[in-house]
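Give me the fold.
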Amino acid sequence: MEVRGVWITNVDSRVLYSRANIAQAMAYIAGYGFNVVFPVVWNKGVTLFPSKVMAQNFGIEIDPLHRGRDPLQEVITEAKKFNLKVIPWFEYGFASSYQANGGNILAKKPHWAGRDYYGKLLTKNGFEWMNALDPEVQNFMTNLILEVVRNYDVDGIQGDDRLPAMPTEGGYDDKTVNLYRQQFGVYPPANRKDSHWLKWRADILTNFLANLYKQVKAIRPKALVSLSPSVYRWGLDEYLQDYVTWLDRGLVDLLHPQLYRRDLAGYQSLVYRVVTQQLRSNELAIFSPGILAQLSGYRITTADLLNAIEYNRSLGINGEVLFFYEAIRANNDELGKALRNGPYRYAARP
């Protein structure tokens, strides 16, 4: 499948704030030659769909900004008019909050908190984390994802640099420490990057993914499990994301590593390394790298975007996913027009 994807956020974007905005965005996206949308459905400790799982656990059925609506269903309905595939994006994954001391999730369930070596709340780059190694936390996340797979006509689900993931500073909570001691007779090492300790924790997350993959397929056999992790091996060393093993075990249908660089040479270097060192030839078909198109005052130039896509094709890569939708609309649809008149002028291969 040739993936021409775009993420739809609820930060720095108002697409999801009304049915009319959603309808307009789906028409634009299809008109510019894209074929897959990845709308956010989970961040800031709330969902963008009415969730019984969230209501039962936290008493918050949906993001209060969207009470009375179902943004996910609206996206699906409008996207299907243009044969766009919809793959909901569980953006926060195992992160509970951003600069909110755990937010509503850990306020209600403090025993779900991830802990660092000093016993403090697991925090990295402003995000506060649940303990992704805890079976209870894993069951919650699985149930949240399966709720979408059961109740919506989606084409798949997507995890990212926070799903499955946890900062390698974590794993020092009592439950995980006791499990490690039961297996090996010693305390976990203080060195978060100790090779055995790192792999042991990464394998727990890989096994979580294996279980999730199996359950998604049992409900909706054709649903695609899409993952957009941090680039290997940095993602393994910092967030326990071992996507080379995920590929080896057949746990991912679409892989979109976040090859986010703000210069063309940096992007090309990363994508070349993934293709030549991390993928088997038969895995190239499921690889559509994530390209940073816009973030915090940065926007990719038209030339760099077109050159990045041309470089992808030269390596045998058939698609990419852009972060994020507002980038293609900026400057009077400058990037969108360049794609429509260039590499996306013909329909994507199914």
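The longest helix spans residues 195-219.
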